[in-house]
Amino acid sequence: MTAFVEGLASPEMEIAEGGVILDNRARFSDLKAMLDSNKDNLKVDAMKRIINLIAKGKDVSDLFPAVVKNVAAKNVELKKLVFVYLVRYAEEQQDLALLSISTFQRALKDPNQLIRGSALRVLTSIRVPMVAPIMLLAIKDAVRDMSPYVRKVAAHAIPKLYSLEPDLEAQLVDCIDFLLADRRSLVLGSAVYAFDEICPDRLDLLHKHFRALCRGLADVDEWGQIVMINMLTRYARTELANPDKGAPDTDIVLLLNSARPLLQSRNCGVVMAVTQLFYHVAPKAQLSQIARALVRLLRGPREVQYVVLMNIATICERNPVEEGTFAISKTMFDPFLKSFFVRSCDSSLVKQLKLHVLTSLVSESNVHIILRELQTYVQMSDLASAAVEAIGRCAIRVGAVSEQCMTGLVTLISSSDEKVVCSAVVVIKRLLHADAPVSLLARLMRLMPRMVAAQARACVVWLVATHVEQVVHLAPDLLRQIAKKFPTEDEMVKLESLKLAVKLWMIRRSECEKMVQYVFQLARFDLSYDVRDRCRFLRNLMFNTKILAEHADEIFMAKKPAPALVSSFKERDQFQLGSLSHVLNQRCTKYLDLPEFPELSSDPSLRKEPTAPNELNLEEEEEEEDEEEDEESGEEEEESEDDDEEENQEESEEEENSDEDEEESEEEENSDEEEESEDESEDSEAPPPPPKIAKNSKKLVENGKSKPDSSEANIDLLIDVDFSAAGSRQIVEPEFVETSETEILNVIEGQGISLSIQYPRTNDGQYTPIRFILINKTDKDIENVEILNNDSQLDVKGNTKISLLPAGARISQNILIDLQDSATSREWILQSPSPTVIQKSFRLQIPYTEQIQPVRLNLSELEKEHSRLGGLNRNLVDAPNPVNVGDIVKCANLCKIDENIFVAQTRSRKDICIIKLLENGKIEASCDNAVIGRIVAFQISKNA
Amino acid sequence: MLNSLFIVNTSGDVILEKHWKSVIHRSICDYFFDLQKKAASPEDVPPIISTPHHYLINVYHNQLFLLAVITSEVPPLMVIEFLHRVIQTLTQYFDDFSDSTMKENCVLVFELLDEMLDNGFPLVTEMNILQDLIKPPNFLRNIANQVTGRTNLSETLPTGQLSNIPWRRQGVKYTNNEAYFDVIEEIDVIVDKQGSTVFAEIQGYVDVCCKLSGMPDLTMTLVNPRLLDDVSFHPCVRYKRWENEKVLSFVPPDGNFRLISYHIASQNMVAIPIYVRHTIQLKPVGGKIELTVGPKQSMGKVLEDVVLEINMPKCVQNCNLIPTSGKVSFDPTTKLLQWNIGKIEVGKPPTLKGGVSISSGSGGTTENPPISMKFKINQLVVSGLKVNRLDMYGEKYKPFKGVKYITKAGKFTIRT
Hints:
Low-confidence stretches of chain A: 1-18, 320-327, 612-727
Oligomer: heterodimer
Largest sheet of chain B: 9 strands, mixed
Order of helices and strands of chain B: EEHEEEHHHEEHHEEEEHEEEEEEEEEEEE
Number of strands of chain B: 23
Radius of gyration of chain B: 25 Å
Helix content of chain A: 40-55%
């Protein structure tokens, strides 16, 4: 068996690599056979070979049908390999890919969060436009999933769907908006990534999350941090005022303070992100903090060095330009000057950049150190010309040493190294083009006899010719020297000396006529025809044509503008630091310009976080604060806890729970008159938000409710605001609570205890409240009565143990159960050890009518939800008798919106359920969970 | 972020390709190969290349390039850092990141890359979680897999991704609980011709090999934490406690990781433990080299693994050198002169003497090449950093703890 597998595994591949074209059909047929076999390890082996081919860039799309069959395999490895294949080829084989979708849909409902997560991940990676609606539904579900991991995967899925179907933008933005409010740092980074990919310009969505994002920054994963800081930079530049003009906004201070510790990150991307944040947003005085971190990055690999140096060069380049900020750039990198010294092991690009930075850092205080260093570089063959150029830049930057630099350059001109001479010449020409001191020209001329390199000699002649008016008395002597050895000079020098001759002819004709003619005569019979041509041309121009000779002055003596020295890094300043566009110095796809600071910060109340006044629930409030603090510090958080999965889950539940509580407490306030007035007064304290932005949709809706007169107006104002589904729902108190009890166990069954059940219908997160009522009908006290559930998976909160049930007493016990929206009947046990052993199991099924909770929706929202829940989600149920409207809220926990419309949501998954009484006597149920809708409607038809 | 990734070797073969979004044909690499051909050495290839429709970001390591294809604006350092993280991960998985290991483990690399990125955005980069998802291959497991038909993919679902300590695996168990800390310092020095120090700084790391069961919470205190003014931390270190108390407090990842790296700048005086006296004359006639290496301020510790390297200019044809100790080799093609000295005994500074033959065509004297040094000193860090104590909370057992100090030469250049 093993031998067979091994035999198949290797030799063929080698042949294929050797370049021999194999018959594809024959080769794939054995792979197909392996995939069709019923042995898992054969299949895995085949898949491995297929993936190997994919990795090598070979086309194996022919195998699609054979592979996709295995998508539901039990073997984890096989499954994973099939997923990898599927994601790669689904785009090309769209119809066949559809076959696999149902597998993922099933997995999306799996109780295990990791399976749900990976199913969503693969499903959304399949690039088949036909599946887009299914993906959208899956994402919408997943962003409200209990598990933060699934929510994270959902955030990742959003950009995938968007690239597949950009039309869905509006709905996806809703999802992002929802995710941005997530408290788990695991989710937050990915949510920001999705935001950045889809709607980077919708900064208005960030207002209410801004502060939470700042505080959460430290706990987000490294990659999320990078995206987040970049996004917050853009936000700050759009919404907050320039901190250099007047006192900095508190929000800017918050942002900078939360980002500052990240300068210590091990991830150079994060450090760069913080750097650019400080560069673009922080007050100038704080800039110096980033220098140390940037210099530390220079220890990294060559690629990192390259990008970082590029950015440092830009920072250095900008600052000298702006008056007043000059000093900052000095103090910023001055202490680290030596870090920019070139090492022999640096790559050549890094060397060049280091030289550039060195020269832009040059100042009177450090010029001597830098010049000495540059002199060493001149002797290094690969750096020599760049170093010479750098010396030239030093000369321009620091006037005091320009003389010294020029002297150095002039000596370099007579060096034996061709490269050095070349660049020295170029630099000297550039430096002296506009203006040359006579003394320097004189020195050059004195050096002339000793100069060997042709370029150097030509350069001197060119310089003298250019500035001939300043050295009128010396120039003829130079021409004389050249004329003496004219035939031995290089072609380059001859051409330049012809130019000099012409110029002398123009200004000192009387003295030099003879010599000029002599030079021309020599040039006329020169060996090089370039020289002969030039000579003929000039002769004709000057001596033979009258008309042209008249204009000779304009032709030869025209002033040429000196070449301006502009660094390429100055241009780069238009791009955001640390961006790809900046490195390439070109506008990349999807690059967003960083706007200038606005004159004034936008209203800080926009950024107020939507925290509910929680007077009624002080405990909860405290707990929450604790939690928040934990998150903030992040350090203490993990202290001495054992963070197994269980705890995590618990935590997430708790969090969600407290969210719910918040909402609840708000309602409670609303129902309470006193509280309401307080609520209003608070609202009047804060300036009313501008109408175009939904600062806190919940609150606004409440306002509408508390002041019915103005509700119309409010709704009008909110017309173009898109509520995310969860935001606008408002959980209300039940309209009716049943007081009668349903008996589950009578005295005989319960061995002396009568057990009955009641549904208090209170709102408590995803939990369904249940009240057990126990009556001791015996004449003895019963101790340690306990109601136990057999299912360990079931999440039950509350005490189900009664230490003493006195004789004849009646005790009621409230518990909360997260039923996960399922009406499965479960087994419970009533037990007590003494005085007589009681052990009675019973089955309990909690009807759907109690698993829902009433919610209120405004009319437009209701309309939207109703139209959304069409098709399979809608059920019609015939009512045998006319329905008594008043009884509906009794038999199901619904909220009455209208005479014949009732709304609720399921407690666990928050699926909306709309019950409508139609005129023909039928009951229409629209619900995300069609089964629940149908059963609720059925119950109503029977009981009301 | 990333659209595609190609692993390419220096001779221009694509070893592996992986696409996270739509497939981009491998001909995109041609833009890169063009520039690679122009560059004198692989290090000189520009790391970021712009092509008409895509942007290429490459990272070079051990004769291999990782070439990422990007279609839109993205922070380049994010990509570069990620690519280096990929290299790190692969190195840890296969003990080596090279042409042959990549070809051998093609499928595994492919699967790893699939886990690390989702739609081109980093998803799982923590080594501990990845190891949970895909077990690293080792010799024993390979044999066991062959026999039992099991695979490297873990059967159980990894839970690490869910924890709020994403860097640590759940349920770690060891029979011997031990934690080793290596304090390593590298000295970067440039010494000029006259023997005076132009530039010297220390780059330090604390590398940890942690084999502790459960969820240990470690606290490390240093004797002189003020030395560290420029530190970067592994995400596990609690930043606030460092800020306030200068104590390193952390729940470590399982296995090997770098706890902190620090940088001590040139302002502080750095004691350089070695000196080189040199006379190098590269002349067509009578070219000679004379080198003496000796310890300096080494605080009584022995210099080990001393290697001296000179990259000779092209005109050098051969070297005829005799050392008093160690071995000398000269490669006429790469022009690398290597003097492997080994241990330097106190009081007997080794010397290297001899002639150099130079091709006469080059004419004149050429520049002197810089000397680079490598060495190691055990049981000493130049900065004087010292671990005071190490405490563990959260677990009951008593771990074995060890601290080792090493000083190494970093980029140690002597100009001649």
